[in-house]
């Protein structure tokens, strides 16, 4: 209880002086379920990161608006000021931290996985053509190995490339791939063991926005301490997903 009280006090202090602007614009891709996606029924952004971001803003007493941006330009448009944060399933990496800053992670490092068409030998992971979304840790992992990397702007395009024969396999977050495998009627299968990449997923902010980062950090910490964050993770990813202690 003492730790929680200290965190909430820090949150209140950070919030009081953090924002120079009236509205904090939250950038997301809207194309990577269950992390973030456009709800067909409402036309609005939905998913784990929408629910999490709204709760972070509520706890931090921030007035937040959501902005949809393509993945390929999501970091440059944060830096140029089109929005103030990135919540788009973005893993914390050293290369990205040379350009932007991150809060503490709100998802632990999670499995990436390869999928292929039924009957595909898992050796294609090392010697075949692997489709991955561009500028992701998965694309970087393939590029470092002996397989041929085939990059696409959106994750759905990687699945299409696999199905039409352009690629031998797809590498992506397992939580993204699992529904495709489950709904494929046996057409798509996982190939080999999972791969752990990156340092978890956090909120990206401009390097100059220390006050905003500290405010968001305090809200995330309070959600870890009271169990709310783990409840959201189980809701969107299932109880087999890594949880915070």
Shape: globular
- What percentage of residues falls in helices of 4 or more residues? 40-55%
Name the structural class. Answer: alpha/beta
The chain-level mean pLDDT equals 92
- What can be said about the biggest beta sheet? 6 strands, mixed
Number of helices: 10
User: What order do the helices and strands follow?
Assistant: HEEEEHEHEHEEHEHEHEHEEEHH
- Radius of gyration, in Å, reads 19 Å
- Ranges where pLDDT stays below 50 over 5 or more residues in a row are 1-20
Amino-to-carboxy terminus distance: 15 Å
Number of strands: 14
| Relative strand content | 15-25%
Primary descriptors:
245 residues; alpha/beta; six-stranded mixed beta sheet; disordered N terminus
Verbal overview:
This protein has 245 residues and is α/β, with parallel strands linked by helices. Helices cover 40% and strands 24% of the residues. Strands 8, 9, 10, 11, 12 and 13 form a six-stranded mixed β-sheet that branches. Strands 5-1-6-14-7 form a five-stranded mixed β-sheet. Strands 2-3-4 form a three-stranded antiparallel β-sheet, covered by helices on one side. Strand 3 and strand 4 form a beta hairpin. The protein is globular and about 55 Å long. The N terminus is likely disordered.
SSE layout and pairing:
Layout (H helix, E strand, L loop, with lengths): L1 H17 L5 E5 L2 E2 L3 E3 L6 E2 L1 H13 L3 E5 L5 H6 L5 E2 L7 H4 L3 E7 L3 E7 L6 H4 L1 E5 L3 H8 L3 E5 L2 H9 L5 E5 H10 L4 E3 L4 E2 L4 E5 L4 H17 L1 H10 L8
Parallel strand pairs: 1-5, 1-6, 9-10, 9-11
Antiparallel strand pairs: 2-3, 3-4, 6-14, 7-14, 8-11, 8-12, 8-13
């Amino acid at each position: 209880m003492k730790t929680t009280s200290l965190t909430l006090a820090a949150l209140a202090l950070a919030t009081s002086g953090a924002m120079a602007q009236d509205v904090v614009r939250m950038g997301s891709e809207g194309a990577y379920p269950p992390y973030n996606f456009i709800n067909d029924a409402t036309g609005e952004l939905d998913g784990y990161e929408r629910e999490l971001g709204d709760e972070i803003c509520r706890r931090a007493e921030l007035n937040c608006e959501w902005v949809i941006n393509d993945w390929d330009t999501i970091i440059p448009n944060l830096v140029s000021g089109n929005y103030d944060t990135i919540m788009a399933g973005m893993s914390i990496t050293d290369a990205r931290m040379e350009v932007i800053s991150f809060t503490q992670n709100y998802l632990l490092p999670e499995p990436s996985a390869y999928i292929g068409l039924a009957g595909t030998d898992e050796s294609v992971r090392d010697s075949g053509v692997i489709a991955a979304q561009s500028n992701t840790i998965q694309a970087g992992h393939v590029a470092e190995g002996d397989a041929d990397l085939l990059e696409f702007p959106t994750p759905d395009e990687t699945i299409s490339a696999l199905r039409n024969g352009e690629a031998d396999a797809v590498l992506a977050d397992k939580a993204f791939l699992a529904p495709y495998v489950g709904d494929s009627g046996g057409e798509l299968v996982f190939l080999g063991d999972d791969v752990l990449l990156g340092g978890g997923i956090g909120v990206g902010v401009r390097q100059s926005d220390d006050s905003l980062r500290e405010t968001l950090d305090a809200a995330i910490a309070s959600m870890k301490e009271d169990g709310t964050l783990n409840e959201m993770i189980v809701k969107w990813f299932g109880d087999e997903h890594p949880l915070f202690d």
